[in-house]
Structures are given as structure tokens and as C-alpha cells.
Amino acid sequence: MAIDGRNLQILANYCAAAADAMAFTLMRTAHSTFVKETEDFSCQIVSRSGMAFASPRSFGAPWYSGIDYGPVLTLIDSYQQGDICITNDSYAGNVATHSPDIHIWKPVFHDGEIVCFVVGHIHNTDVGGAVPASLSRSLTDIVQEGIRIPPLKIITGGKLNKEVAKIMRLNVRAAEQNWGDFNAQIASVNIGERKVHEIIARFGVVDFLSGIEGILDYAEKQARAVIATIPDGDYFYADYADEDSEGGYPCRIAVTLRVKGEQLELDYTGSDPQLMSSLNMPTGGRERHPLALVGVTYVLSTLDRKLLLNAGTLRPTRAILPPGTIMNCEAPAAVGMRSLTCAMSQIATLGAFSLAMPDRLPANSPGGNAIMNIRTVDRHNRTVVASLGPVGGGSGGTPDHDGPEGSGGLSAFLKNTPIEINEAEVPVQFLRYGLACDSAGAGEYRGGLATEMVFKVFTPNTTITARNRNRSVFASAGTLGGKSGSLSWFRTQSAEGKITEHGNTDVIHCGPGDVVTVKGPGAGGYGLARNRRPAAVLNDVKCGFVSLAAARNDYGVAIVQGETDPVETARLRAAMPETAAEHFDIGPARRAFEALWTQQRYRLMTSFLAGRPIVWRHFLKHQIFAAVAAGELADLPVEEQMDRLFKALLARFPALQGEPI
Q1: N or C: which end of the chain has fewer CB within 10 A?
Q2: Which pairs with CB-CB distance under 8 Å and at least 24 residues apart come from 648-651?
Q3: Closest Cα to residue 426, out of 465, 375, 392, 466?
Q4: Distance CA 211, CA 259 (A)
Q5: What is the DSSP letter of 654?
């Protein structure tokens, strides 16, 4: 049959169903809650050259729908029937992007020839390293982040490489859990292989192979049609992680979106230098690296719900990722927290698109989805390493409805773990897990509410990691009059009643009776809050989403004895602004920061750092920030001040000029 039109869509559906079957198998046979409940995994079918053309439609992490496995496929010398390969090395092909993500791939043969590969990854709760759960922003090089497996055959011709398997099991904290998850991955790709053979039996190998290219080409055609609806121009937006290192300075992710006809360019020039912390992204400078372009995938699929998501979707887009920066780090930089940087790059991307199409895109999502992990012991004194689930916020308010509560936006398909599962598998007691009142940014359509988790631990030497802690300082922005969301927090109360605030610290130690409270950040609102229907505000109050005080102060709605007071509401709203002062409400902390760190100042600094050795850049950034904060040469114009500061650093550190130390 001809693989075009309707038959192409039928083939695409069969392939997506095969990827769904891979995902079902993985979920149903995995051991860790992070895979079987949270669904931090991916499954794809990729072409012989490595281009993903089929992914699960509603499972796992859709960040990888446009992935190109080509760079790692070529690192294996040859393939035979029954081979399964593995890697988690972030610097080998830049497919794995931090150590807990173990990727595997299996060639699918037909009549002795490879027709495609079935692939996938899972996020292991722990792969060894310096801290339980392997990840912390405090780590400074990748060696601290757990075992690294170079691309190799873990199964050759159907036979397990037992020596490598022993090394994998020996270097992790929960070996049986990890091995169970690994076997689930094996089952997943085996199911994928079987499903591909069924598809070939139905369509024939020639039509299957030509159909792969047809699916990729069709996704590209769809993407180009969507891009053509976006006004041409250059659009700049930047956002910040609260800290570039433990207790450090803000970390900037900047992007210039260039739209020209049916093509997009994302230029990340102006983002922070490579850091001596684990927020770096190992993209290898690949212009269509999926993590650098996740925001584009989200935007295009928002604008066209029928869009096929695969590697073809990204063909009209390229990213500029300057080497030696947070968006394109070089070994041996730590990369464990790259998911926080990726989330912030998505927010920056959506912010730039919002400037181009404010009536079609939502306000900012939170950008601080903390993944809570625990290392403790059970009543039999056995070590337990588990994920307790994400604690984040909803998505930003949209042009026509509120943001979803507690998730959505940049949460992808990742799900929370039910507390019944957690309490059955982990010796903790949950005191609360729900939505946080008054956490969403106000607006005509408010942002999604944040979640809050409160639990008690019962054993000494319990370690809690809160991966991706963020938004304790800088709030998620509102759009077109909508207000920014609330900040996050992380605190403990000891058994003796002492309360400790942890800010963005992501690794803490607890003892018996300690209570841990984590609240995520709220999403930004869309449109003026004075335009929100009073009945909607009243309903929010009744649901516990908005307090009476916030209804009055933020929305101008007076509620008396459970009903709105129209007269008082009209009076309150008459005193509220009638127009938005600016496109984004970025919140007071970021407003104060950018009053000092203007685009001009940041541009001068990043240009200076780009010319310095990579190993110096994070250090020099901190020196410059400290000097500016201290007011050195503040009486001079910005350009002259920064030039003088740069020259002082060069004089102070002769090694920067290649001179003998």
C-alpha cells in the first residue's frame, strides 16, 4: 500500500501504540515508585539513524519526544540480533544527560538488516555518588554524581554481561531496586521489538521504512505550518534560578527567539557561564538537543493539538548554545541538577513566545518542582531509598481559563506518588499533602495552586533530598496584568519544636520525630485580577484556594457571610489599575535585582567571561557580582564601571592573560 495520507496516519498510530505498550510494560514491572508511580521514564522507537518517530502518547517524560539517539548508536562498533546496549554517561553522545538516567537501546532486525531501534530511559532513584539519590546542586564535578557507564553492550546476542552487571549493583545504595527497574527496561524494549515485527508483518518492511521517513516529514510539515502563524521578529526573555551554587548568586538563563517565516532560532547567548555546581546542561552544543528545545515542543503542541511529536517536529528549529556555558557545559562539569536549568530554559522560551503571541500562551509556570527523595531504614533496619514524589505548582493562567492546580505546565506527564504507596513502602507518616491556599498568582485567570507536603520521619540518620529546589527568592511571572505566584519554602521542625528554614538547600539530615514541610511555588496569573468574575473568586474562597483577605486585597472582591457584596466590590475595584503596567509582573525580588543587573550589565559580564578559560568563569562571575554588590566604582557609567572591574580582575590574576603565576 502507499504510505501517505490516511495510511501514514494509521502507521503512525500503530507505532505510537507500540511505544504505549513499551511504557505500560515498564510501568507495570518496575520496582521503584519513581518509575511505576511518578513515571520518570521515556520509551521511543527510533529510525536506523536514531531519529525518534514514536513515543508514548500520555505516559512518562515527553521531554524526549524529539530525541536523536544517533550520537550514541555510532559509539557501538557493530550490532547483532539480541544485543541491548546501555549508557548513563552524560558526555558520551549527550543522550543521557545526568547519571541517574540510564538509557538502553536494542536493534530490531528483519531479514538480517536493522530496520529501527527500540530505546528508552528511566531515572534511577540512586546511582551512588556523594549523596543519597545521587544529586545535589552542591556537587562540583560529575564524578561525585554516581557510577558512570560508557556506551557498551550489557547484553550481547541475548547473553548478559555479568561483569558489568556486578559493577552496576555494587556502586548503588538500593541495588535490588535498581536491578528490578533495569529488568523492567529490558522487558520494555523486548515488547517494543515484538510490536515492531507485528507492524512490519502488517505493512511490509518497505512501507514501514518509507513510513518512518513519512512520519518525520509530516511532523516537520505540521511544525512549519504552526511557526508560520507566529509574527516574525526577535523576542528576548530571561529568567533565573535562585542560586548558581549552594548559597550562591542568581543563575540566569537568557534566550533570544528569532522567528522568520517557517523557521525558529533560539539563541542562548547571555546565559550564565559553566558553573562549579550541578546546574549545567550537557547538550554538546547540538542545535536540536531535545532539552534545549523542550519549550518549543510545548509551544507548538499548545498551538496545534494534532501535532505529531517526534524528531521531525524540531527540524525547523535550531538552538545556539555557546560552549562553556550553563546551556552547553564541558566535562567534567557536574550536571545532576540539569532538570532545573531545563525547566528555567522552558520558562524563558515560553516567555519569549508570550511576547510574540500574548493572546495565545499562558503566564509562567513555577520553575521549581522539587523531587523529594529519602534515605532511611525500615523497622527491620534495611536501607530504604525512595522518591516521595514531586512538590511543585500548577501552570500559569491562560487567556481563557485558570491554570491547572498542583501540576501541569512544565510537569509533563510526571505524576505524584499516592501517600498510601509511600507509607506502605517508606517508614514515614504523612501529615498533609495538598494544595496551598493563596499560592497562585492573581489574575482574570489565576495561576495554578502550589502543592504542600508535610511528613514525619521516625529513624535517625534519615537523609532528605529535595532535588530542584527553587523559587524561594524569584517568583514566577504573571502576564498582562496577572500577578506573580507565591514563593516556595522548605523547613523542618525538630522533635523538640525547633523550626529551621532551609531555603534552596536540597540535602538535609533528620532524626526521629522531625517534621519536614515543603511548599512549591505558585504559577503566575493572566490578565487583570479586577476583571475576574466575582462568582469565580467566591468559589475559590469556598474551595479553600483563596483566603477572604486575598479575595479583598488581590481581587477587589468583598465577601460577607458567604456572599459577594456588589457595592463594596465595585468600590474596591474602582481603586485598582485599569491597565497592565508591563507585559510581565516579575515580582519585587527580581524587579530589585534587575534594577542593578540590567540587560546591559549582564551582557557586558557574559561577553567578558566568554573570553576567559572555562575553569575560571564561575569564580570570576562571583568576583564580579561581589564587586557590584559592594558598590565598587558605582559612580561611573555602567560600561566604564564594568570595564574597570574586568581590568582589575585581569591584573589581579595573571594566569588569565597567560602570564607565569
Answers
A1: C
A2: 649/620, 649/623, 649/624
A3: 375
A4: 30
A5: G
Mean pLDDT calculated for residue range 389-416: 86
Work out the burial of residue 600: count CB atoms within 10 Å of its CB; fewer than 13 is exposed, 13-18 middle, 19 or more buried.
exposed
Task: Measure the CA–CA gap between 382 and 170, rounded to whole angstroms.
Answer: 16
Closest listed residue to residue 199, CA positions, set 186, 212, 217 = 212
Class of residue 246 by CB neighbours under 10 A (exposed 0-12, middle 13-18, buried 19+) = middle
Asked if pLDDT for residue 412 goes beyond 80, the answer is no
Burial track 139-160 (b if 16+ CB lie within 10 A, e otherwise): bbebebbbbbbebebbbeeeee
pLDDT at 660 over 50: no
**What pLDDT, in 10s, does the model give residues 364-383?**
988 878 889 899 998 888 88
Contact between 491 and 501 under an 8 Å Cβ cutoff? The reply is yes
Q: What is the pLDDT of residues 172-221, one digit of tens each?
A: 998 999 999 999 999 999 999 999 999 999 999 999 999 999 999 999 99
Q: Are 403 and 397 in contact (CB under 8 A)?
A: yes
With 50 as the cut, is the pLDDT of residue 155 above it? yes
Provide the edge-to-edge strand list for the sheet that holds 101-110: 52-54, 41-46, 113-123, 101-110, 84-87, 152-156, 159-160
Q: How far apart are CA 504 and CA 494, in angstroms?
A: 19
Q: What does the pLDDT average to over 603-627?
A: 97
Handedness of CA 5, 10, 14, 19 (dihedral sign): positive
- Of 160, 63, 178, which is closest to residue 120 (Cα–Cα)? 63
Are 312 and 326 spatial neighbours (Cβ–Cβ below 8 Å)? no
Residue identified by cell 523576542 is 235
Cα gap 184→187, rounded to integer Å: 5
Contacts of residue 298, defined as CB under 8 A and 6 or more positions apart, other chains included, come to 346, 349, 350, 410
Please report, to the nearest 10 degrees, the dihedral formed by the alpha carbons of residues 64, 67, 72, 77 taken in order: 120
- Residue 390's closest CA among 34, 30, 24? 34
CB distance 276 to 245 below 8 Å: yes
Give the per-residue SS3 of 384-434. Answer: EEEEEEEECECCCCCCCCCCCCCCCHHHCCCCCCCHHHHHHHCCEEEEEEE
In the predicted structure, residue 62 carries a pLDDT above the cut 90: no
Query: Which grid cell is 240?
Result: 533565573
Q: Is the pTM of this model over 0.90?
A: yes
Q: What is the DSSP string of 59-79?
A: SS-GGGTT-B-HHHHTTSS--
Q: What is the pLDDT of residue 61?
A: 81
Q: Identify the helix (H) or strand (E) that includes residue 42.
A: strand 41-46
Q: Tell me how far apart the alpha carbons of residues 546 and 557 are, in angstroms, rounded to a whole number.
A: 11
**pLDDT score of 82:** 96
**CA 362/CA 471 separation, integer angstroms:** 19
Average pLDDT over residues 504-518: 93
Query: Which element (helix H / strand E) includes 238?
Result: strand 233-241
CB 86 within 8 A of CB 186: no
Sheet holding 370-377, edge to edge: 383-391, 370-377, 462-467, 507-510
Phi, psi of 188 (to 5 degrees): -65, -50
- pLDDT at position 513 is 95
What is the rounded average pLDDT for all residues in the chain? 94
- Measured CA to CA, the distance from residue 186 to residue 646 in angstroms comes to 54
Q: Within 13 Å of residue 104, how many CA atoms lie on the same side as its CB?
A: 24
Angstrom distance (rounded) from CA 274 to CA 267: 16
* Interatomic CA distance for residues 203 and 562, integer angstroms: 63
